[in-house]
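Dear Dr. K.,

Following up on our conversation at the group meeting, I've run the structure prediction for Diaminopimelate decarboxylase from Paucilactobacillus hokkaidonensis JCM 18461. I'm pasting the input sequence below exactly as I used it, so you can double-check it against your construct before we proceed with anything downstream. Let me know if the numbering doesn't match what you have in your notebook.
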Amino acid sequence: MSTQIEATDINNQGHLLIGGVDSVTLANDYGTPLIAYDVSEIRQQIQHFKKIFDRAKVKHQISYASKAFATVAMYQLVKQEHIHCDVVSGGEMYTALKAGFPMDKISFHGNNKSRAELEFALEHKVGCIIVDNFHEIDLLQDLTRASQQPVNIMLRVTPGISAHTHEYVMTGQEDSKFGFDIKSGQAQEAMKKVLAAPFLNPIGIHCHIGSQIFSIDGFVLAAQKMMDLVLKWKKDFAFDVPIVNLGGGFGIQYTDDERPLQPEVFIQAIIDEMKSIAAKNEIDLPEIWIEPGRSIVGTAGVSLYTVGSHKNIPGVRNYVAVDGGMGDNIRPALYQAKYESVVANKMNEPANVTVSIAGKYCESGDMLAWNQKLPATQPGDLIALLDTGAYGYSMASNYNRNPRPAVVFCENGKSQLVVKRESLADITALDLSLNES
Ligand SMILES: *Cc1c(COP(=O)(O)O)cnc(C)c1O
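The predicted structure tokens came back this morning:
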């Protein structure tokens, strides 16, 4: 649900529709807090990315960065759309496997992959391991020597670019925990090692400069730095890098005053830059891969909460408290993320009060949104926090021993539960009693 809600997203009872389903019905059927996805919006986002590359007639691959939202049903949806997936842990890999996602379309990321995770990846023949550091090269050499099975790898490098975004979601700068630094020669050293390793098959280089990026400069600069490497390695190692993977980070609109660029603007800038460098140096254009996460699921998700208590501090602030919060969406508390909201059962009522939406967790920082213009609310009303599809449920926790919410997929007026709500029994499922002494 984008922040621009259209008339067609509201039914004649004044209720918000999600994927054609009445949000009040969703709340009644599945309870709150509930995360609801408009599935056709996810499909459209994926198809949109594909079309941009198809139109440019460039060899490409789109790999959904599944950490944005990773569940069995989501991997199955991605499988239906025939694109690749990135995973960043054994847990995500396992979820993809359980979903029947083709393992040869998986890229495995991480700055500290364990031996067990790498073994799992090799055993299930993941398409590509994005190698992050020298320790990982050693581990992979060990494991592949033992199994005598080759594995496709890409080297993740840090191009030394500061994307203009929150520092916790900035990843391309030199001082980063991720990847081989180019400037100090680490990337060069890593490539030399990989080329000498009998079972490591280098298929490309990778960088990811950050998240929620709003300008093309960082991507163009990244494309240049990567093409510099491609040219250098052709010269130094007589190696033609087949794939340049430029990661994800395409920004989406969370608030009315944000103006993100359309994906085609980013992608076209990348393609143009790489094409021009390739032409100038008379080399073939490498295949271009991207890894969008947020921009595939972010605006498709809506969090539904039931209003409970109110606190009005005259002249200071109106608080409206809902039945969820940082346990189902930690982004506002973690990096001051902003959202827009609506009262889903009062879509046609005038928005004439200003309120801040508080969660129910025992932290003052547990706020979901500040200074929202909404219709007056009573206990029982339904607040929809918009565009919560990325990094909401995937970062959910059981803080305060609150059960994690349910997730539902909505498409063409039908809903389907895809993650059950945790029960109180689930909350203590892993706990063991103290030994009697
Ligand atoms: C998180 C991540 C992405 C996706 O980032 P978004 O901002 O969600 O598009 C892509 N690639 C890598 C390596 C990542 O860590």
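Two things stood out to me. The chain has a mean pLDDT of 95. The CA atoms of residues 23 and 29 lie 10 Å apart.

Best regards,
J.T.
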